[in-house]
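Ticket #4471: structure export looks truncated?
Reporter: QA, pipeline team
Priority: medium

Steps to reproduce: submit the single chain below to the structure queue and open the exported record.
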Amino acid sequence: MNLKEVENLVVTTLEDAKARDIQVIDVAGVSSFADLMIVATGTSTTHVRSCGSFVEQAFKDAGEPPMGVETGPQPDWVLIDLGDVIVHVMTEGARAHYALEKLWDIKNKPEQAAE
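Actual output as written to the record:
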């Protein structure tokens, strides 16, 4: 699967699972381990776990199983490693706390702002 196909499958799967506020972040220029981060919000820990499971299963069904899936017993965050794409599904509280969009927003980095 190429990068756009992976992105489309993740986004479609998350939309079908009713994940909220799905954001695709291009990190190719600032990350050596991934080209895209996809961040979404689940409404509860059960919903977060379910969204993660749906993404994992979609890629297994496509013959491209994830390299890894990380979660805890009461997950407020599930991480799915698809190689060049990293998927984060979080509760609203975890997403606000970790603010991944701000962390990876290269437009707001000091070296970019000076240009």
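Status: closed, not a bug. The export was complete when the record was re-opened. Leaving a note from the reviewer for reference: The first strand starts at residue 20 and ends at 26.
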